[in-house]
Amino acid sequence: xSDHIDNTDKIIFAEVARWLAAVRRxxxxxxxGCCHYCDEALAPALLFCNVDCRxxxxxxxxxxxxxxxxx
Length: 71
Ligand SMILES: [Zn+2]
Known about the structure:
This is DUF2116 family Zn-ribbon domain-containing protein. It comes from Janthinobacterium kumbetense. By secondary structure, the chain is an all-alpha fold. The chain has one domain (2-66). Helices cover 55% and strands 0% of the residues. It has helices at residues 2-24, 51-66.
């Protein structure tokens, strides 16, 4: 069973690393201790509580940019 757990950890770490790399490329967002999408309390360095919030936030931002009211 430990192999299964090890593999799960690798998958989770890979996803977290990919996600952190993605959010760190985003110059406009500053971590403020809450999720930028749902306002859930977070560790101070995080921008979103999970990838769903990040994806939804990006969709919302993209929609606002398309509508001409980014920011
Ligand atoms: Zn959230």
